[in-house]
Amino acid sequence: MTKFTDLNLNAKVLKAIEEAGYESPTPIQAGAIPPALEGRDVLGIAQTGTGKTASFTLPMLSLLARGRARARMPRSLVLCPTRELAAQVAENFDTYSKHLKLTKALLIGGVSFKEQDKLIDKGVDVLIATPGRLLDHFERGKLILSDVKVMVVDEADRMLDMGFIPDIERIFGLTPFTRQTLFFSATMAPEIERITNTFLSNPERIEVARQATTSENITQCVVMFKASRKDREATEKRKLLRLLIDAEGEKCTNAIIFCNRKMDVDTVAKSLKKYGYDAAPIHGDLDQSQRTKTLEGFRNGELRFLIASDVAARGLDVPSVSHVFNFDVPSHAEDYVHRIGRTGRAGRDGKAIMICVPRDEKNFEDVERLVQKEIPRLENPLQADVAVAEEATAEAPAKTDDKPKRTRSRSRKSDAPRAEKTAVEKPAEDKQPQAEAPKDPPRPEAQPAPQQDERKAQRGGGSNDRTPRGRGRNDKRGGNDNRVVGLGDHTPDFIGLSFRERI
């Protein structure tokens, strides 16, 4: 069996490894460290939780043991997709470099630029950063990348998912062509392969596991869940989650619960707290100080349930996580591998339980296709409770008198409108002979005043030539009455004047 002492690492690095309690490297470490020490480019493909961080940390420290950094010109660069992963990589450097006089700087969002600028101005040997914050410092003229000798891209496939590939390509262009590149990823998407072909020179490819495989010591299962009503789906789904947690009992010492949306992260955390579970959320919209505090509490065992978005799916190294609950089926099948990789780490056993609703069945099929096996179905405890309730209802004595009474009452109600309709129709029949009765004698036509006839004659019309506007000749109000409705004899004289004659 290969040991760290067989890998030609720096003596001070080996001492730090021994003090950390490690003797034998993992397969990815045993395959990546020797070519990295030789100065070759490395392309490492391994599932999460296999020790990829130490695969580039240990050879970098051995290569940087000699030399000194200049102001604003780091000697090495490590790019990470999330703040949490960058902070974890920084912790690894602190662990393995405690006997070396090397400096580092962590450039992540949510932290003041001023403190980061102070570290860069002094000169750092190792610069650990997220792509966005790194480019912010570069554009402000605080950073020069022309002296980078070793560049590491960690969790490259997550970079692709988060849209960092254009930034990565730009950063590659800012570093020297002669740099050494260490590229690590859990999966190899076509876009990732294109970048490796473009920016890596004859890399040593180390693939210690089939792409997108899950650890064998993780027990996987899924609950196919369908709500009783669409508007109750969210409530019943949260209840199902609580039943699944309770079913695990003492085996579930702590767990990470993954949701697809940040809003659901907050909702699930609030719901669990309401029912007495020790839970807290973590996602990208929270302040960095709050995210760090929550993560530390979970690592120290002070927090039992960590409800997280995919920001926590990559790189979180908490060896004692017993369970992972996928409250939602991940939109990208590769994320499933990374999510459940938070449990079953360092040789421990773990369990991953997923809840699948009907609209997520297509994504679930993609997950099974990716891992190339059928995930066992788990009985829905919520349906079992419903079945018990239905049995109790069926055993209760039925009230036989109610049904006939309701039937008779409905028949009476249905007959009532018919009686009312008949009563209404009868007067209509009686009205027919009344229509044949003689009408009132027509009113005598009003004789227009002489002045009015004169004026109307000038306009070319008589008093009875026109029908009132908006009313027919056989109007109900007056039959054939053609009287002009208007001001009548009180019409002012100026209204009848002809303006054309004056013009």
Structural class comes to alpha/beta
Number of domains: 3
- Work out the strand percent: 5-15%
Largest sheet: 7 strands, parallel
Straight-line N-to-C gap: 121 Å
CATH H level, superfamily name of the largest domain? P-loop containing nucleotide triphosphate hydrolases
Q: Any idea what the CATH architecture of the largest domain is?
A: 3-Layer(aba) Sandwich
- Enumerate the spans where pLDDT stays under 50 for 5 or more consecutive residues: 396-439, 460-478
Task: Output the CATH class name of the largest domain.
Answer: Alpha Beta
Let me know the average pLDDT.
Answer: 80
Instruction: Please tally the β strands and state the result.
Output: 13
CATH topology of the largest domain: Rossmann fold
Number of helices: 18
Morphology call: globular
Q: Share of helix among residues?
A: 40-55%
Widest sheet: strand order? 3-4-2-5-6-1-7
Evaluate the radius of gyration.
Answer: 42 Å
Written description of the protein model:
It contains 18 helices and 13 strands. It has 503 residues and is of the alpha/beta class. The chain folds into 3 domains: 204 residues, Rossmann fold; 165 residues, P-loop containing nucleotide triphosphate hydrolases (Rossmann fold, 3-Layer(aba) Sandwich), CATH 3.40.50; 53 residues, no CATH class. A 7-stranded parallel β-sheet has the order 3-4-2-5-6-1-7. Strands 8-13-12-9-11-10 form a 6-stranded parallel β-sheet, sandwiched between helices. Helix 2 packs parallel to helix 3, helix 3 packs across helix 4 and helix 13 crosses helix 14. The longest helix is centred in the last third of the chain and has 34 residues.
